[in-house]
Amino acid sequence: MDWSKWIRQLHRWLSIIFTVTVIANFIAMALGEPPTWVVYSPLLPLFLLLFSGLYMFVLPHAARWRGEPARERAGPA
Ligand code: HEM
After folding, report:
1. Mean per-residue pLDDT, 14-41
2. Is the CB of 25 under 6 A from ligand 1?
3. How far, in Å, from the CA of 32 to the mean position of ligand 1?
4. Quick check: is 70 in a domain?
5. Residue 55 Cβ contacting ligand 1 at under 6 Å
6. How far is CA 6 from the centre of its chain?
7. Predicted local confidence at residue 31, as pLDDT
């Protein structure tokens, strides 16, 4: 599988996990004082989102630095 496609897929799934942990925080806070591990649970996915996101951000620039011609964004498949 293409490396950049794999990173994009990872970013997509991390965003879902991150969103779930944020929602879990709202629910836990509504029920009272949330446990520390719930409060900090969004940080790991957010951290990984940052790196996979920065990687995707740099991709088109990196291609230009390598002297590759500009191309359309890769679609599905
Ligand atoms: C933390 C720093 C983040 C950076 C630097 C970042 C960066 C990026 C970049 C560069 C793209 C590709 C855009 C393109 O198609 O050209 C992207 C896509 C995306 N990002 Fe992030 N992102 C971050 C965090 C997040 C968060 C917090 C969420 C949601 C909770 C998120 C959800 C998504 C989704 C759903 C896509 C589309 C992926 C796909 O193609 O299916 N990102 N992001």
Report:
1. 97
2. no
3. 32
4. no
5. no
6. 12
7. 97
Q: How many domains does the chain have?
A: 1
Per the domain annotation, does 75 fall within a domain?
Answer: no
pTM for the model: 0.86
Decide if 40 is inside a domain.
Answer: yes
The boundaries of the domain holding residue 19 are 3-63
Residue 40 amino acid letter: Y
Instruction: For the chain, give the secondary structure using H, E and C.
Output: CCHHHHHHHHHHHHHHHHHHHHHHHHHHHHCCCCCHHHHHCCHHHHHHHHHHHHHHHHHHHHHHHCCCCCCCCCCCC
Cβ–Cβ < 8 Å for 38, 24: yes
Average pLDDT over residues 22-29: 98
Measured by CA distance, the residue closest to atom 26 of ligand 1 is 15
CA of 8 from ligand 1 middle (Å) equals 8
Residue 77 lies in a domain: no
